[in-house]
Amino acid sequence: MKNILKITLAILKPDVVKEIRHRILKAGFYVVQSRSVNLSHQQVEDFYSEHAGRFFHQRLVTFMKSGPIHVHILAHPEAIQLWRQIMGPTKSFSTQFEFPDTIRGSYGLTDTRNCTHGSDSFSSALREIKYFFPNFSYEEWSEKHEPLLRKGECIIDYSTFTHKIK
Ligand code: ADP
Ligand code: MG
């Protein structure tokens, strides 16, 4: 009976997540906080409200609510620029040829399904971090944790993917 449904087991293996995490650590970032989240339609609309009205907005919303995402607060002296450099340019179609070693160049599928997000300025970063980590205080972190991270008094905890202060 050729139409009988059969079953198989599918696992999304850790290498995809692990590969990106490896690139984050290799670049010298400190991981301040991490969380995994499923965004609702409204949450994606809110997060990407700056792109409302653009031709790709609807497909961006559909994509971003399609499954869990991992969100990180990363720290580095050049955090904004360095993360954007490692991600590569927005449009994966051309980036796969022009910057093949970047994340988007390596794993991006389309100009919308381009693997990663990165804040474009310090003020955007503060606003976006507040969106996903409402209890995070940049002032408190700068005072208490930043000096310790900068001195390297921390160790990466792979189970939570955050740097813990020693
Ligand atoms: P970035 O994520 O590099 O900061 P933008 O803020 O301009 O880029 O756009 C937000 C997201 O919208 C992009 O990461 C991508 O998923 C999608 N996007 C942007 N421009 C296009 C485009 N021209 N075609 C399809 N999707 C796009
Ligand atoms: Mg952007």
UniProtKB/TrEMBL annotation:
Catalytic residue positions: H117 (pros-phosphohistidine intermediate)
Pfam families to which the protein is assigned, alphabetical: NDK
Keywords, comma-separated and alphabetical: ATP-binding, Kinase, Nucleotide-binding, Transferase
MF-aspect GO terms: ATP binding; nucleoside diphosphate kinase activity
UniProt-listed Gene3D superfamilies: Nucleoside diphosphate kinase-like domain (3.30.70.141)
Residues that, per the record, bind ATP: K13, F56, R84, T90, R104, N114
Residues annotated as domain Nucleoside diphosphate kinase-like: 5-140
Biological process per Gene Ontology, one example term: GTP biosynthetic process
Family, per entry: Belongs to the NDK family.
Official protein name in the record: Nucleoside diphosphate kinase-like domain-containing protein
Source species: Daphnia galeata
